[in-house]
């Protein structure tokens, strides 16, 4: 049996993808719609306020393509709080005009591959900030789930820790060459969801997602072991932006 990697966990994360039933939304009387919007915006204000005292983070995005219309990302210290925000949304009248085509439950994770043995990462404030990250306020987000392959000779979980560390070092070097252009939050989902990790990328230039993901595809750890789920790309929404998205579409 090969040695399991030790991991460090931070805030729990809930990616909540929502699709809007536009016909239903548009058929609602304008004054009722206004009331539903206000209720939604009040809830979002409450969710966003967790960042003020570092009790979590929140982001909302307009999602391109047919897979979803909105993405709400919640980071909280406990999974119970994530459950609460999920139920809080589901109890809003606005929830009745949405469905959930996809969701992802995970926890911010750092693995020990690149941490020198003997160091106490928790004594490092920068490390803590990576485990309990405030979502970057970039204009664009990219999210996808992924696994490490377990197939014949390409079984990540049968490799020695040294082989895995070597590949993760190369992976990290590629990632670092994108410093300042993209930020990543890697969340572990083993035991929580259908994929092993969630990859959330943040950038002000959507092309950077394509360049980075392409470059990583040619790197051994992704080329041999990466298995990927659906990709989602979105534009960050302010409350005004969400208001406009829901209002401007009413014809
Ligand atoms: C944007 C840049 C970037 C940077 C700097 C970066 C660096 C690093 C480092 C240093 C480490 C190891 C220590 C740790 O921090 O855990 C990781 C870890 C990880 N990564 Fe990464 N990654 C990036 C980006 C980045 C991307 C774009 C992807 C998706 C891969 C692709 O092909 O689409 C990814 C995946 C992961 C995963 C799934 C893990 C956990 C693997 C495990 O087996 O545990 N990652 N990553």
TrEMBL record:
Gene3D superfamilies: Apc35880, domain 1 (3.30.70.1030). It catalyses: harderoheme III + H2O2 + H(+) = heme b + CO2 + 2 H2O; Fe-coproporphyrin III + 2 H2O2 + 2 H(+) = heme b + 2 CO2 + 4 H2O; Fe-coproporphyrin III + H2O2 + H(+) = harderoheme III + CO2 + 2 H2O. It is an enzyme of class 1 (oxidoreductase). Fe-coproporphyrin III acts as both substrate and redox cofactor. Pathway: Porphyrin-containing compound metabolism; protoheme biosynthesis. Its EC number is 1.3.98.5. One of its GO terms (molecular function) is peroxidase activity. The active site is at 144. Keywords: Heme, Heme biosynthesis, Iron, Metal-binding, Oxidoreductase, Peroxidase. InterPro entries: CHDC, ChdC/CLD, Dimeric_a/b-barrel. Pfam families: Chlor_dismutase. Its cofactor is Fe-coproporphyrin III. It comes from the Bacteria. Fe-coproporphyrin III binds at residues 130, 144-148, 171, 184, 222. Belongs to the ChdC family. Type 1 subfamily. Involved in coproporphyrin-dependent heme b biosynthesis. Catalyzes the decarboxylation of Fe-coproporphyrin III (coproheme) to heme b (protoheme IX), the last step of the pathway. The reaction occurs in a stepwise manner with a three-propionate intermediate. This is Coproheme decarboxylase. It comes from Polycladomyces zharkentensis.
